[in-house]
Specification:
The complex is a heterotrimer of chains A (85), B (400) and C (353). Chain A is mainly α. Chain A has a single domain, classed as Orthogonal Bundle (Non-ribosomal Peptide Synthetase Peptidyl Carrier Protein, Chain A). With 400 residues, chain B is an alpha/beta fold. In chain B, helix 10 links the parallel strand 10 and strand 11. The mean pLDDT of chain B is 97. Chain C has a ten-stranded mixed beta sheet, sandwiched between helices. Chain C has a two-stranded antiparallel ribbon with strand order 2-6. In chain C, helix 9 links the parallel strand 9 and strand 10. The mean pLDDT of chain C is 97. Classes of the chains: A mainly alpha (85), B alpha/beta (400), C alpha/beta (353). Chains in contact: A-B, A-C, B-C. At the B-C interface, helix 4, helix 5, strand 5, helix 6 and helix 7 of B face helix 3, helix 4, helix 5, strand 4 and helix 6 of C.
């Protein structure tokens, strides 16, 4: 699980172009959207593609992403349960 | 300040008809042009529906009498067909008898050929003719040539899905200020894999018929179309004893300055655009008899636009409907398509039904017009909003 | 009708023009057939959260806009009018190639969003929180001129007070590669100082962002007055001089009144003839060229507009742009002429103010 969380942080930084950030800057329970990392709806769409490409999880409704992408913890938990690759 | 600019001709090609008359018949018969995509090979064929024009490129080339070595994109082909109809219905025989310009709108431009030959360009000389057809201005240059417009003001506007409304606005301003005597204004966009996949990544494409202003709307259907209006100065109208179809009475442009793609929750930009258009027309909101809404059937647009309409019109919102259920969202052409529909509505005193509507939206109580309605119409407002916060409104009127 | 003034200028180009305190003194003499801009430190102007999704064209546009607004001493602006021939072409390339390479799978929205032509204008509005009029013109070598025409009309009619206009285009690898194949880009690298005498087909392609605040209120610091502008979708070479004379006449001027002619020569042997033909009517007039230092792109003429503005204010003509041996004691009136591959011509008339 910890390895997955580390991997998620690295992927998020790369995928979302968070140039000035390192994995240490993101705590497992930091809010990714809103007041936390400040991600927005376009980032959510990017993360949906990441779920599909890296973990074989397909979301059809962007609204589903809201609870999944709350934090690194929630993402890791969801991926562990639903991944197909 | 509030004097309208005369519209003396119009032309259109869309998924519901190849000319003005056919489009009108479909509108009043409630006949939509939405189907599975047939002319573009895409993996998403079963996930989306589109508003496609029947003619193939070869058909269109024949109609225009183009040589086989032409390098017209589908956008240019559609644009040329619609612009020629506009010119003919305006009864123009010598285009250069008056200072005539062309303002065209597009977002796709020659992308259909670029995506088809992207890597082939590097190796296959026979397709390299399309390289210079990629940029957005190329289709406009070709339309100008088809119309015989020379040594004149010709330009292209690309403000995403509000583009053609802006072309109409600029055209009206150039006539009013005397810079041109006559101007052909409108827009063209063909379907492309580029836009299909682009809107797909935004997850705003419906897998079934789009349902504007419905609580359970699932997103938009892309469409392809072109439409143009001929605007003429009072001087030309008098000298040529022209029949005026309607007037461009008001227009407003604003930016939502909220998000790269989404509209603000309360439709700030849309509200400003409608308000500015009313100001230019010197109308109070009560003067508007019908709103041809942008109504793309995305969750975000219809909520934001509905709220903006309520902000402008308060308790007494005029009849409104979106015609996107007929044509799909024709992107940069939409403002011109809906301008033609607005003029037809004024001429025939009808309001088109908002097709596919079933369930009232929860967030407000306004409901679009659901049946064809006959009613004397004086003034129609048409909205067009786009990515990048671009919001535009045009008002069409019977009286100058 | 009110007069229209250029109240500030900002340029990001292949030369170090983002520093407005100097004026093309040191020239980067690239030996290339494609030249990129010298980047300012974008981070000084754009917060990292906003910058992370911005294409280069957006960054150039946003930063040049902020520079122009700052120099004009304004906090905000009434309207934003952008010209771009190709938009953010790198993202268009990225998205098309991803569609093909990945067979329409795993596509992400960012490059699609950036590829919309109005993305620069939209991002400037977002950064400045400007809810006013916002247009984007995309008409090849008349993209910037269309923006200028629109702004001038609104300011002359006093509909707005201060309008930001600009031209912006970026280079993309695939676009460059295919334009080399069809000889629109020169096949061999050429030095900046030799481009205009190259006598070969095609141009040296470049990129850049040139933004300006236009106003109907003159300030002590204003650069110039925009007197008139005319664009043409087509113009046969034989008519160019006659049209120029006619254009000047409409503004109560003759060819003798022009102190400096700023021409858009790009060293393409097939199309520079338009400029040669025009010059014949201006035998005694000083001439300046600029595309050898900026490169050719759809909105390169906005760099010419920048050059002419700065010449009028500083009354100096940088050595590198001088096109002949004529000299002028005072530069009051400048005529600009541009076209690309024989299409989309424009005349622009600027005056000292």
């Amino acid at each position: 699980m910890d390895a997955l969380k580390q991997e998620l942080k690295e992927n998020i930084i790369e995928q979302l172009n968070l140039e000035d950030m390192t994995t240490e800057d993101i705590a497992n329970d930091d809010m990714l959207f809103g007041d936390g990392l400040g991600l927005d709806s376009i980032d959510a769409l990017e993360l949906i593609v990441m779920l599909d490409k890296s973990y074989g999880i397909k979301l059809t409704d962007p609204k589903e992403g809201r609870s999944i992408f709350e934090s690194i913890n929630t993402m890791a938990a969801y991926i562990t349960e639903h991944r197909s690759k | 300040m509030s004097k309208g600019v005369a519209i003396t001709g119009m032309g259109i090609i869309s998924a519901i008809g190849n000319n003005v008359a056919e489009n009108y018949q479909s509108l009043i018969q409630g006949k939509k042009g939405i189907s599975r995509v047939s002319k573009i090979k895409t993996n998403h064929v079963n996930d989306i529906m589109v508003g496609e024009i029947d003619f193939t490129n070869e058909h269109l080339e024949q109609q225009l009498g183009l040589a086989s070595d032409n390098n017209y994109s589908r956008t240019a082909l559609l644009g040329a067909i619609a612009a020629k109809e506009a010119m003919n219905t305006s009864g123009i025989t010598d285009i250069n008898a008056y200072k005539t310009g062309l303002i065209s709108a597009t977002s796709v431009g020659g992308m259909d050929m670029t995506e088809r030959y992207y890597y082939d360009y590097l190796e296959n000389p026979s397709v390299q003719k399309y390289i210079e057809g990629h940029h957005a201005g190329d289709a406009t240059q070709k339309i100008a040539e088809q119309l015989g417009i020379e040594k004149s003001l010709v330009t292209t506007i690309s403000t995403a899905c509000s583009s053609a409304a802006n072309a109409i606005m600029l055209g009206a301003r150039l006539i009013k200020s005397g810079q041109l005597d006559r101007v052909v204004v409108g827009g063209a966009d063909c379907l492309s894999k580029f836009t299909i996949n682009g809107f797909k990544t935004l997850m705003i494409l419906s897998d079934t018929y789009n349902t504007p202003f419905d609580e359970n709307r699932k997103g938009l259907n892309l469409g392809e179309a072109a439409a143009y209006l001929v605007l003429e100065s009072d001087k030309v109208v008098q000298a040529e004893n022209k029949k005026v179809l309607a007037y461009v009475k008001g227009y407003g442009n604003a930016n939502d300055a909220y998000h790269q793609t989404a509209s603000s929750e309360n439709g700030d930009g849309a509200t400003l655009a409608m308000q500015k258009a009313l100001n230019v027309a010197a109308y109070k909101p009560e003067a508007i008899d019908y709103i041809n809404a942008h109504g793309t059937a995305t969750g975000n647009n219809d909520l934001s636009e509905g709220r903006a309409i309520i902000r402008i019109f308060g308790e007494t919102v005029p009849d409104f409907s979106s015609t996107k259920a007929y044509t799909g969202h024709t992107l940069a052409a939409a403002g011109a398509i809906e301008a033609v529909y607005s003029v037809l509505a004024l001429q025939n005193n009808v309001i088109y039904p908002n097709l596919n509507f079933k369930t009232q939206m929860k967030e407000f109580s306004i409901t679009p017009q659901l049946q064809l309605k006959e009613k004397p119409l004086q003034n129609i407002m048409s909205n067009s909003f786009g990515f990048g916060g671009n919001c535009s409104t045009v008002i069409f009127s019977k009286e100058q | 009708m009110k007069k229209v003034y250029i109240n500030s200028i900002a340029s990001i180009s292949a030369q170090k023009t983002f520093d407005n305190t100097s004026f093309l003194k040191e020239i980067e003499d690239f030996e290339a057939n494609v030249i990129n801009v010298i980047n300012p430190n974008y981070k000084d102007y754009i917060p990292p959260a906003a910058a992370r999704r911005m294409a280069k064209g957006i960054k150039m546009g946003v930063v040049a806009s902020k520079m122009a607004i700052k120099e004009a001493g304004l906090e905000t602006i009434d309207a934003i009018i952008t010209g771009t021939g190709m938009g953010c072409v790198r993202d268009s390339e990225k998205f098309v190639s991803a569609i093909i390479d990945n067979d329409e799978q795993y596509l992400t929205p960012t490059s699609f969003i950036q590829s919309t032509h109005n993305t620069v204008g939209g991002q400037i509005a977002l950064e400045l929180q400007c809810k006013g009029y916002n247009f984007t013109y995309v008409h090849a070598s008349n993209s910037f001129e269309s923006a200028l025409l629109d702004a001038k009309l609104q300011l002359a009619l006093n509909e707005e007070k201060n309008i930001l206009i600009g031209g912006v285009d970026e280079l993309g690898d695939h676009t460059t590669a295919i334009h080399k194949i069809i000889n629109h880009i020169k096949t061999e690298p050429v030095k900046v100082t030799q481009v205009l005498q190259a006598n070969t087909k095609g141009a040296v392609f470049g990129e850049g962002a040139n933004f300006f605040v236009l106003s109907n209120e003159k300030k002590n610091t204003s650069y110039a007055e925009v007197v008139a502008l005319k664009t043409y979708n087509s113009l046969p070479e034989k008519d160019v001089l006659q049209e120029a004379v006619h254009f000047l006449k409409e503004n109560n001027l003759s060819t003798n009144d022009v102190d400096l002619l700023v021409l858009g020569n790009n060293g393409d042997v097939d199309f520079d003839t338009f400029y040669h033909t025009l010059s014949k009517g201006f035998q005694d007039t000083q001439i300046a060229y600029y595309k050898h230092v900026s490169g050719e792109f759809n909105t390169a003429s906005s760099f010419g507009f920048w050059l002419a503005s700065k010449i009028l204010k500083t009354q100096t003509i940088p050595e590198v742009v001088k096109g002949n041996n004529k000299t002028t004691t005072s530069i009051k009136t400048i005529l600009l002429y541009n076209q690309y591959r024989g299409e989309n011509h424009s005349f622009t008339l600027l005056k000292q103010c």
